[in-house]
Structure formats: structure tokens, C-alpha cells
Amino acid sequence: MMNGYLDESDFTMVEEGFTTRDLLDNLLMEVSQTTSKGAFFVADLGDVVKKHLRFLKALPHVKPFYAVKCNGSRGVVRTLAELGAGFDCASKAEMALVQSIGVPPAKIIYTNPCKQISQIRYAASHGVQLMAFDNEVELGKVARSHPRARMVLCIATDSSRPSASLSVKFGAPLKSCRRLLEMAKEMNVEIVGVSFHVSGGGIDPQAFTRSIADARLVFEMGAELGYKLCLLDIGGGFPGTENSSVRFEEIAATINSALDLYFPEGCGVEIIAKPGRYYVASAFTLAVTVISKQEVPWDLLSSDDEEPSRKKSFLYYINDGLYGSFSCIFFDHTCPTPVLHKKPCPDPPLFSSSLWGPSCDGQDRIADGLELPELQVGDWLTFENMGAYSIAAASSFNGYQQPQISYAMSRVAWEALQLLPGKLAQPEEEDRVRVCTPLSCGWEIADILCITPVFAPARIT
Length: 461
Ligand SMILES: *Cc1c(COP(=O)(O)O)cnc(C)c1O
Description:
By secondary structure, the protein is of the alpha/beta class. It contains 14 helices and 17 strands. Helix 2 packs parallel to helix 3, helix 2 (about 45-60) packs across helix 13 (about 410-420) and helix 6 (about 135-145) packs parallel to helix 8. The protein binds pyridoxal-5'-phosphate.
């Protein structure tokens, strides 16, 4: 049963016995014959399917609304729509993007708490009702420009940690919530729920517990004022790769305990989340090529090495950088590490190496202190886990053009996608947020998917 957002022409089907890595190798084989190929991505949409199944299994009472700002690429948005996820949009452009492929407005939440009036009007005229706010001024704007809005009060998360830096800019402190709820009453703005967002990749699962408890307090305040709040939004911040300090399942277990305590099943509150990086980080691999190199004396970078063969080091210039796909380095503090495509001879001498982007900015450095065999102009390097806040935050500085994306999916993932029972629900029949029912069958295929290394490259650096 297909929803029609994604079909087989949108990606390369990876048949049994092959992996997405093989596809990447094939593409690299082809491009190494030509010299003009730019950097490109291979996106494993099956990995997104796998993440969705993991999400439904770990958080069975929570409905995911994908945070489009993290990676709004066509294949990702179509796959998530096909999976029945909802969408968290930060702007008019993001709402237009998901609506352009046919996602109904009931599956969209417009969460930027500080919105331009013209964009509030856009939401109103395009049927998007769920919106977030955290201040008085915003309530006034919504009362005038979108009287049918269903508002979610965004509360601050514990901002005592530096990782929670978003809370300085966004989120109402608990002590102003009552006042905001009262103001909304006066202005006739409908409040339907409470949201929060723990930023920083979910490093501290207890942050979710504290925020869920805080949200409960706001629900109580609402009840005292005569509100019947029915929606809790627990935000995003779940890790998207296996090398994070806390596993997604561990965070999910903490969230489930807190939900059992403060929002038990049957309490009449619908729970949603807004995962971004979780869905896309590991699905994207970036391939870049060395466009130039420079040999520098070893002692320019360090002086404590005695081996004569190491008395030199290299600066390599590659065709994507900090102002392009590697923008995640400064937006998301990632430390990308390259995988060499060409197998070097056994035990090659290693040289201290650094990687630099193609722009004219001296700050455009991607990695440093790497121990690599000597590379040549035209050699290809790949970087894994490049799906989150990479292309989404790229600029056109120095005339940079975004890399092409080759989408792929294994047949088993494609089949799992079609078995998802939650997709049978017809969104048109629903007036409330109803994204997907938890998976009641098909776990067998889910388990197969989640243990098969669909994308398991052999590391050779
Ligand atoms: C960016 C954002 C998200 C998604 O964050 P991830 O860390 O990518 O999961 C969710 N909610 C809000 C309010 C955000 O601003």
C-alpha cells in the first residue's frame, strides 16, 4: 500500500547481495575515468526507513515530525512522507517544500517561535494550524493574522548547561507560562499543548525527564485556567550516528519512563517529537576529490618526530568545504574523518596531513592532524555521517554549488516501507494530529533491516 510520495524512479534499487557501499564504489569507479566530476553524495534512503522503524519501536507512543531544517533534500522528504511521518517546518519555504509534494497541512507543525507576519498569513492560507510560540508579541500577531491557529507553548529547557544554548533564544521560562496562558485567553488564541527542545544531540537523557516534568506543570496551570491541553511535543536532539556518547534507545527508555509518570497512556494527551539529525545523519556519505596539494616540512607542524620518512607533511585541497557541505563543522561541531577510496599498498608510509576546502578563506579547514598515505590530485575521499546540517546550511560563498545527491535503497528496505501499517490511515479523515499508528506487524522485516549492515564500509585509513 503506497502513499505515492516516493516511487522506484526516485532512487537506485540496491538488490540483495549488494550494499549502498558497492553503489558508491561503482560511482567512484565511473567518475575516476572522467576528471570533471564535482563532489557528490550517496544517500541511503533505506537507512532513513531503518531509523523510522527504530523510532516506532523505541518510542511507541510518540509520533515523529521530521525537522526539515536539518536536511530538506527531495529524497529524504519524500521518504519520510511515504513513511507517514509529519513535518516540523521553520519557515514558509519549508512548508511550501513539503506541501509541494502533497503532504496535507494536518501533518505540518510550524514551530519557529518568532515568525514573520507574512509567513503566519501563509500558514493561515495554506491550512497549517499547529504553530509554536514562546512570547506575548507572537500571540498578538497570531490573534490578528491566523485566528484559527492551534498554538503550542514552547517552554525553555534547562539552560544551565552550555549544550542547551538554544534555550537562551527560545522557550518561555516556567514563571512566565501562566501569564502567557492568561493572555492567550484574553486574545482568544487557542492553546492546544506544550513543547520543548533539548538541543545538543541528546547528550543528557535526564534533560528530557526534567522538561517532561516541567511540561506537566504547564498542563496543570492550563487546567486551572480552564484549558484542556491535548498535545505534548518533546522536540528533537536525538543522536543520528552510532558514535554518539548515548544511544538513541537509552534516551528513549528515559523518555518512556518520564512519559509513564507524567503523561501515562490514556491521559488523553497526544505526544509528538521533532527529530532532525536522528533520521538523516548516518544516511549520507559525501565523496570529494583532491584538487590540489602542497608539501610542507614536517617541522612546520610538529618537531617531535624522529623518523626520517615522516619529515614531511601535506596540505590537501578538496572540492567541498566549510562554506559547503562541511558547514556542519561550525554549525554542529562535527569532526569529519575521511575514508580513502583507493586501497593503498600494504603498510604505506603515513604523513601528517590536513584537509582544506576550495574557498579563498584561510579558515576553510576541514580536518587536521590526520595520518594518511600520500594522496594525489584526483584521488577520492569519502566522509560518512554527513546528512545532518550539511547541505542544509551550505552557502553560495565563492560560487559554491551543492553536490549532486544519488539516492539509493535496498530492496528489503523498500519492501518494509510498503508493509508499514500506519500508512493506511487517511489523513483527510482526521482533524487531529495523527501521523502513524505504532507498528503492529512487520517487526520481523524490521529486525532484519536493523541488523543487516546495509551500509558497512571497510575502513582503510
Ligand atoms: C532544530 C530543531 C529540532 C531538530 O533538532 P535535531 O537535533 O536535529 O533533532 C527540533 N525542534 C526544534 C525546535 C528545533 O529547533
